[in-house]
Design a protein that fits this description.
single chain; 319 residues; alpha/beta; six-stranded mixed sheet; four-stranded antiparallel sheet; 14 strands; 27% strand
């Protein structure tokens, strides 16, 4: 009973990683004390620069790498001591395309399903192939497909055993816009079915469009884990750009408290502010600009997106 109760607690976080370390050659720390909890049905975008530890982390979770220390549980199962049970719950779409070039699409999926000890189910495979616009190519050999189509087969292959957690490691790298849109739609459908999804991507707009939470990893450490909407609300910056009728060499002293920046060769002033700034502050700034004798020609605003936030976060860590 105690063991069952412990597993129920773990399932509350469908993926639970505790103090995970992975060291190569006894010196290079690819992962350093990673802690990560992901809920059932959640879409987590795992972001970070090349070499940050994203692929190492995914490989450790999927049992492809043995961690130096730490614990990983998937669906309540220990990845190390209950590997078979945990692996049945996991679907993986790796960066590299690895397929038998001389096999047909449909047979590739049948073989993958059989590896998990599941009975044949061509109706289910038909559903997957149609979702990924592969049905018309089902009898084609892999070598006859384009790179984008092969990427679709990799995704289908990861779904044939109906995993409850899906890892997408740069799934849309180098593919066309159509596949990217199909992928987003498929991910939303899987989420509705309760599938947990971990996505790594260099397309920050992709994470911004579909993720529930954002995790940023760098140098093997998780720097930040936060709800996407809350992160954008907390860290997004806005810039008010005031175009002037005549250029200035520097902002008037009357405006010192706003910390304005010169732009466009003195033909504009920029005011950076956060989402917490009251609208009355903006109104006061515009009033003070007039008091300072500056004539306003136009006003516009720019808002930082998730990509700006991640870049600034990484730059601040380096500095």
């Amino acid at each position: 009973m105690v063991e069952n109760g412990h597993r129920k607690n773990l399932i509350r976080s469908f993926l639970k990683i505790s103090n995970l370390h992975k060291t190569f050659n006894k010196s290079f720390a690819a992962l350093s004390g990673v802690d990560l909890h992901v809920e059932k049905g959640e879409i987590l975008a795992l972001l970070g620069p090349n070499g940050a530890g994203k692929t190492t982390l995914i490989a450790s979770i999927c049992g492809l790498l043995r961690p130096t220390s730490g614990h990983i549980h998937v669906g309540g199962y220990d990845v190390k001591t209950q590997y078979r049970e945990a692996r049945k719950l996991i679907g993986l779409v790796p960066q590299e395309i690895s397929l038998d070039q001389f096999e047909s699409v449909i047979n590739t999926l049948r073989f993958s399903r059989g590896l998990f000890g599941l009975p044949p189910d061509d109706m289910f495979l038909k559903q997957i192939l149609k979702q990924l616009s592969l049905w018309e190519k089902r009898q084609s050999r892999i070598k006859e497909l384009s790179g984008g189509m092969r990427r679709r087969v990799m995704i289908a292959k990861a779904l044939v055993h109906q995993p409850r957690i899906l890892f997408l490691d740069e799934p849309t790298a180098g593919v066309d816009v159509e596949l990217r849109q199909d992928m987003w739609e498929l991910i939303r459908h899987l989420k509705e079915d309760g599938v947990t999804i971990i996505l790594t991507t260099h397309y920050i707009a992709e994470a911004e469009a579909i993720a529930d939470r954002i995790a940023v990893i760098n140098k093997g450490k998780i720097m930040l884990i936060e709800d996407k909407a809350a992160l954008l609300q907390r860290m997004a910056r806005k810039t008010l750009i005031v175009d002037l009728e005549s250029p200035v060499r520097q902002p008037p002293k009357l405006l010192a408290r706003y910390r304005l920046n010169l732009a466009k060769g003195g033909h504009a002033l920029e005011y950076d502010y956060g989402s917490y700034t009251a609208s009355t502050t903006i109104a006061a700034l515009l009033t003070d600009l007039t008091k300072a004798g500056l004539k306003i020609r136009d006003v516009e605003t720019k808002q930082s997106n998730l990509e700006n936030i991640i870049v600034n976060l990484l730059q601040n860590e380096i500095s």
